[in-house]
Design a protein that fits this description.
Layout (H helix, E strand, L loop, with lengths): L8 E6 L6 H9 L4 E5 L18 H6 L2 E2 L12 H17 L5 E5 L3 H9 L9 H12 L3 H11 L8 H14 L3 H7 L7 E8 L2 H18 L1 H10 L14 H8 L5 H26 L11 E6 L4 H18 L1
Helix pairs in contact: 1-13, 3-4, 5-7, 6-7, 9-12, 10-11
Length: 323
């Protein structure tokens, strides 16, 4: 039997990269006071702005954001750390009063799940075995590491070296896949989500992604990567192993031609967006172990951000009036 869920209900705007999540959040901020809690595993890195489609300074000045520019490239920032930090940001926003509502916005499903449902309490690992495994995983090419992660955890959906290494580490050191631990040994989450899932037809999303890649390159993506490398950041460091950055690194290292760069980034971005959309379509409605399943509201994001924001505000007012 489900038990009552006394946590605050919180809007969570999700969807694949390029669908328009940030634009909708900004339009919503024009209608009601909000603070955006960014649930994007790439936007946590300082200095990686263009390739992560981070909101510009003007937007951040108009709409408060939390979860941006938290760590330097190369530093690990886990889903568990995000869940703890985000819970604090949400509590701070609410305790400040003035009617400001925290709104979670992002496309990193693991971050959102960690916040809503919690993650497992990690069992103690043998330090020597863990260090041996770390050295071994660092010796692998990214694609090989991802293949190992997929073999050891069939639920692994990709997401860069850091996430693949984590999946391999947990599986080999505990005997169970990371996804098993997440199902069977969760802590309680701190968020009761109202999911707003933005979707568009595939051909529309592909056009938007092509435009975004062109804009990133025109805005100086290559120079952004070069600055990080010149500052001593390793080419395969966390952050630079993300889509867009790894292709530029390959080009700068002579492994990819300049003429092939744009299409290479676009292909990788399309694949990532497809994985994201599959995850959101299949995972959001999974009920908690003892709580009711969350509400998921799908919205056609071919409408303008302003029209979508108006619909969200109207429905949110109805939800809060009866919650």
């Amino acid at each position: 039997m489900a038990v009552p869920d006394t946590r605050h209900q919180t809007p969570v705007i999700v969807g694949p990269t390029g669908v328009g999540k940030t634009a909708v959040a900004v339009a919503l901020a024009a209608l009601t006071p909000i603070t955006v809690i960014s649930a994007d595993a790439r936007q946590v890195y300082r200095g990686l702005d263009i390739g992560t489609a981070k909101p510009d300074r003007e937007t951040q000045a108009r709409v408060p954001h939390r979860g941006l520019d938290l760590v330097a490239p190369g530093e690990r920032y886990s889903a568990g750390r995000f869940a703890r930090d985000a819970a604090g940001w949400i509590a701070e926003t609410r305790s400040a009063g003035q009617g400001v509502e925290p709104i979670v916005v992002g496309g990193t499903g693991l971050y959102i799940r960690a916040l809503a449902e919690g993650l497992f309490r990690e069992p103690p690992f043998d330090p020597e075995r863990r260090e041996q495994l770390r050295r071994w995983s660092e010796s692998l090419e990214g694609a090989d590491l991802a293949r190992w992660a997929g073999r050891l955890d069939p639920a692994f959906l990709g997401g860069g070296r850091q996430r693949a290494a984590r999946a391999v580490e947990v599986a080999l050191l505990t005997g169970h896949a990371l996804s098993w631990w997440q199902r069977e040994a969760r802590e309680s989450g701190t968020l009761r989500p109202w999911y707003i899932h933005l979707t568009v037809p595939r051909e529309v999303l592909h056009r938007r992604l092509a435009t975004r890649v062109d804009q990133m390159l025109a805005a100086g993506l290559v120079a952004e990567v070069q600055r990080q490398l010149d500052a001593g950041v390793a080419p395969d460091a966390a952050g630079l192993d993300g889509i867009g950055y790894r292709e530029v690194v390959a080009m700068l290292n002579g492994q990819l031609s300049e003429s092939a760069l744009r299409d290479s980034i676009l292909v990788s971005t399309r694949r990532y967006a497809k994985r994201q959309d599959t995850w959101f379509r299949n995972q959001l409605r999974t009920p908690y172990a003892v709580r009711r399943a969350p509400e998921v509201w799908s919205l056609d994001a071919t409408e303008t951000p302003e029209a979508l924001a108006m619909k969200i505000r109207e429905r949110w007012n109805t939800i809060t009036a009866h919650d």
